[in-house]
Amino acid sequence: MAVLTFSMPIIDNLDSFDPIQYLFDLQHSGVKLGIERMQDLVKLLGHPQNQYPAIHIAGTNGKGSCSAILASILQKQGLKVGLYTSPHLEYFNERIKINGKEITNQEILELVIEIKDKLKDNETTFFEFTTALAFLYFARQKVDIAVIEVGLGGRLDATNVFTPLISVITSIGLEHQRILGDTLEKIANEKAGIIKERVPVVCGETRPELIELFKQICSDKNSDFYLRETDYKITRSDLYGQCFISKKKGYTLSLLGEHQINNALTVLKVVEVLNKLGVMVSFESVHQGLLEAKWKGRLQLYSQNPLMIFDGAHNLDGMKCLSLFLEENKEELFEIKSEKRKAVCIVGISNGKNVKKMLECLSTYFDSIIVVQAEHRYTPKEEVAEVAKKYFSEVQVAELHESIILAKSNVGENGFILVTGSLYVVGDLLKHLNKEKQEGLKLQGAIGNV
Predict the structure, then answer these.
(1) Domain boundary at 292, 311, 335, which?
(2) 402 inside domain
(3) Pair (344, 279) in one structural domain
(4) Residue 190 belongs to some domain of the structure
């Protein structure tokens, strides 16, 4: 994993100390591979990551969704479940949850001060510090089990310092090639770095050559290998959820898109292995967990008038999944009362992504695009717009927080707005819209109290 290195900032005045800003201030330029610092850090903290059983989840796409679905199911079983994911969309606290409840600012403050005190002048990184904080929080809160999502890659990721109950690899795609390698096989080997000796592995990948690669690594490590089911039937799919049948059992999934059914099938296999390990999970818990699973910013239906959907498709594989969803729901998305619905996509793309092919996917369904950029890790919007001119008949460039107003003026209250291309764009816009909504509610309350 690429990690950012820096010297620890100094806390001059604890009374005015903002722990979350402190964490963000730890991000500086520079890349260094390895997990040695993380190993030293958890040792300083008394190895909190070893104080509860955990499931480790890696993959190019789907690892966050699988983590959220699995945590939902385990919670329905009555377990106290820690969930660690990244990146966050709106607020840092989203990264660390127990039974769906985010860690509080006060809890972050106390843990940041404690970890900083033990680190003294040792170097660490933003992600290492955050991961250690999550490990320590889960230990202090005495979770029954934790679901830990890999940050980047696997072998050299900061999360890769514990032996899990199960290692999960969702799917492999071409991403972070400068860091992980320029072929699927090289990237798969990096993801496979989370496979431990005699720890069962669940795989959601479908490419035969990659499945064989994972099987061989599992054989070398004496680890049982389990492949998710690929035989299923969708019985209902719309903008409010989907139903499917697998192994003669019916399930309802709250998350949208056929790719989420594949993620759910990966999780079902994890549950099957958990039961074999003696961690019993009932069918009722599975059913309710799938029904109530939430994963913000992933084909999230935000509003009806206009119809607005947020999807953090941030690479080509993710964009292909989004395209499949658009195709399968074309009539509901692009028509209203048998007439064509006005539609526009708001798109910002992170740096290092395949801009041309991602835009090409969207141009099949949209004639109009508004190009934006997030606050960081972005491809300049002017650069994206130049490429977009080859695929869209109408290309507009806007500041991020002005894009929704522009989109609404373009399509009207009966139109369709899709926000996509980057998790950072999705997160920044969701935060902006939700802040406006809260301010509106406060204003209504103030007027009502006059």
Answers:
(1) 292
(2) yes
(3) no
(4) yes
pLDDT in tens, 308-340: 999 999 999 999 999 999 999 999 999 987 789
Number of domains forming the structure of the chain: 2
If asked whether residues 272 and 384 sit together in one domain, one would say no
71 in Cβ contact with 146 (< 8 Å): no
Number of H-type helices and E-type strands within the chain? 16, 19
The model's pLDDT over 55-110, given as tens digits with 9 standing for 90+, comes to 999 999 999 999 999 999 999 999 999 999 999 999 999 999 999 999 999 999 99
Tell me, yes or no, whether 203 and 310 share the same domain: no
Assess whether 86 and 210 both reside in one domain.
yes
Which candidate, 308, 314, 386, 377, places its Cα nearest to that of 345? 308
CA distance 411 to 391: 19
CATH number, residue 27: 3.40.1190.10
Task: Select from 381, 383, 377 the least CA-distant residue to 400.
Answer: 381
The span from the CA of 419 to the CA of 404, in Å, is: 9
Pairing of strands 54-58, 145-149: parallel
Q: 385: domain CATH number?
A: 3.90.190.20
Residue 100 lies in a domain: yes
Other CB atoms closer than 10 Å to residue 139's CB: what's the count? 19
- Compute the Cα dihedral for 146, 147, 150, 154 and give only its sign: positive
C-alpha span between 271 and 286 (Å, rounded): 8
**What gap in Å lies between CA 255 and CA 244, rounded to an integer?**
12
Round to whole Å and give the CA distance between 274 and 326.
35
Average pLDDT over residues 247-272: 97
Q: Which helix (H) or strand (E) holds 146?
A: strand 145-149
- The helix (H) or strand (E) run that includes residue 347 is strand 343-347
pTM for this model (two decimals): 0.91
What SS3 class is residue 117? helix
Where is the domain boundary, 262, 292, 322? Answer: 292
In this structure, is residue 75 part of a structural domain?
Answer: yes
Q: What are phi and psi of 239, to 5 degrees?
A: -80, 5
Structure token pair of residue 103: 């860690």
Does the N-terminal peptide bond of residue 306 adopt cis geometry, omega within 30 degrees of 0? yes
What residues make up the domain containing 153? 14-292
* Cβ neighbourhood burial of 305 (10 Å; 0-12, 13-18, 19+): exposed
| Spatial separation of the C-alpha atoms in residues 409 and 400, rounded to whole Å | 15
| Tokens matching residue 219 | 């054989």
